[in-house]
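Quick one: structure tokens for this chain, please?
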Amino acid sequence: MTVRALRTLFLTPVLLLAMVAAACAEEGMWTFDNPPLKQLAEKYNFHPTQEWLDHLRLSSVRLNDGGSGSFVSPDGLLLTNHHVARGQLQKNSTPDHDYVRDGFYATTQDQEMKTPDLEVNVLVGMQNVTARVEGAAKGAKDDAAALKARDAEIAAIERESKDKTGLRSDVVALYNGGEYWLYQYKAYTDVRLVFAPEEQAAFFGGDPDNFTYPRYDFDMALFRVYDNGKPLHTDNYLKWSAKGAAPGELVFVSGHPGSTSRQDTVAELLLERDTIEPAVTEYLRRRIAAEQEFAKQGTEQTELVGTNVFLLQNSLKVYVGRTEALSDKAILAKKQAEEQDLRAKVAADPELTKEYGDAWDQVARAVDLARPEMQKRIFRRADSQLFSFALQIVQYVTEVKKPDSDRLPQYHEAGLDSLRFQLFSPATIHSPVEKLYMTTALKLAKEKLGTGDEYLQAIVQGGDIDKTVDALVDGTKLGDPAFRKSLIDGGEAAVASSTDPMIVAARRVDPVWRASYVKNRDNILSVFEAAGEKLGKARFAIYGKNAYPDATFTLRLSYGTVDGYPYNGTTAPPFTTFYGLYDRAASFSNQPPWDLTPKEAAARDKLDLATPIDFVCTTDIIGGNSGSPVVNRDGELVGLIFDGDIESLAGDFVYDGTKNRAVAVHSAGIIEGLRKIYGVSALADELEGKK
């Protein structure tokens, strides 16, 4: 379990589900300050220039909905996946227009539809601040004091950068704290929907085909970024490759992988396998079952929970895959061998032993402390957007009065603009869904933690869960962003005097949450961070920077080739075609989830059926890479990442180049579909630079 993952568990009011030795082959999610130049030169005789790297970095974007994307025209056109855009499509949908199901196209720029709360980040600056962060913790009396000192210095660095540049400024821990980097982002919040296909075209094959290959999905969507009310003009965009990726071709992925655990100790991996994964899997199954039952009530209910069921089913497959990977004796043996190699090298050097030799014992101690806390961290939840707003508001008005260095990390000054953007989102919140999510979560908490759990009692107060939730959701005014803003503007006095039932409940929960946070921060997280920093420095001392850090939802570069792989006793092809789409639909008698949309069915005779639609490559990706561009040596866009194969689910822990594959939409297939299925030639012209 990475320190970043622990921070997610121990810091956030609502848990969001969304991760060494020297790298070999095509493994690696490389930071742009340390790209794999040696590997590319030796294996492919390719020598990317700094200009090539900078252009790719500045053309790549991160979306706060949890995915990646890229600029694909000089006028701010942004390409990502339909499933990344799905949340915004749903938030813009109305009873008369279901944009998730039916798709969307703006024929003119004035029809482009503003998203309520999508933020796009472009990484414009990077600075190594390791010495400053580590220096702040020198002389600390214990791990807890050291963590507090580091956090205070990080807050100061972020605030100084934000004040000086106006840029979103995040200090990122890499190599488990072996290095700290200041990442500066240009943030855009005026983002508008331009095009999305129907859900069925984007997710052909549904959940049965998810994380499999061959695939036939048109999983793409387009936004446009605006700046000062006008389409963003940028010289940093990816030119479109009409022919797209070819078998055997060297390709690159520039995106934002979320989180990996490849540098974790064996003790941490066993904590994942035996404690965390089973609990999270049980939670996901319960949520999915409740929401599918709710969907049976009618079309409206199906539309309300459809996106969430999609995300939960996706997460469930991920966690089942993670559990299976950590139960694989070969994978565990590989991780044990890696750890033994590092430990042996440290033990062979007296200086390294003195500095870093106790790191593994520290981790084991932290794991022992963390294990009994995991049930609380996973099941203490309300799963309500309204309650999340309430708790954030209660904490916000208290935290912003403190010196920045003393605040909870999520309320540091440098991040408040993004936080307020989310808090004041005008997106509609649906009461029936809020009740469903909250009731399911609280009943599961009661079952797993007992009726006497402090968190549960702070919300329910010994009453009936169904009646409590009805009263909270029906009685609150937090669905109105103007009301949320009035509480923030009114400060502690307004929040303390508020009789809004959600705010009242959040006031009761806040001290319980804070006590748990402080306990875990001082006794567990601080130990993990101290030990992780030692292990990171030990790796540097032994392997140098020929290794890459675990993923942190920051920009990374991976490379590989377009290549099939052995599966089910045969070989998966490097790419699929429109021929295959129509064949697979016919093979299932055009029954869901392998049914064609009306537009796909009508376009069959117009299409060049030999055109590739999807392909696979050996690039190293993970969740968060969805929407990442795939580019060739010339920096041209040849594809769009949207998934991995089932074998890639072990990628949280290991990379196996023989069968781990990234799955992408082909650039030629996108143009063919836009022109001949959807008839949006003007949009295709803009992508191909013919506008």
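The CA atoms of residues 1 and 264 lie 6 Å apart.
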